[in-house]
Amino acid sequence: MAELEKKRMDFHKDLKLQKKQIMKRVHAEIAKIQQGDDTENDNSVENASGYMGERVSVKK
């Protein structure tokens, strides 16, 4: 029985590690997408006039 419990604990530990790695990748992808959105906004028609006003970003 102790061996089965050890396997269960190891499995749980592996799942937690995988979840952590997935969350890091997801956060990196979200940051990359948001950075891409910022770049697209900088090149938009509204900004083509040369206006350099204060930029306000809204978190989604």
Tell me about this structure.
The protein is mostly helical and 60 residues long. It has one helix spanning 2-42.
Short description:
This protein has 60 residues and is mainly α.
Strand and helix map with partners:
Elements: H1 2-42
Region (Disordered): 33-60
Search tags:
single chain, 60 residues, mainly alpha, 68% helix
> What's the count of strands?
0
Average pLDDT score: 81
What sequence of helices (H) and strands (E) makes up the elements?
H
- Helix fraction bin: 55-70%
Largest sheet: none
Give the radius of gyration. 22 Å
Instruction: Specify the overall morphology.
Output: rod-shaped
Percent in strands: under 5%
Q: Whole-Å distance between the termini? A: 48 Å
Q: How does the helix and strand content classify structurally? A: mainly alpha
Helices, by number, come to: 1
Low-confidence stretches: none
Region (Disordered): 33-60
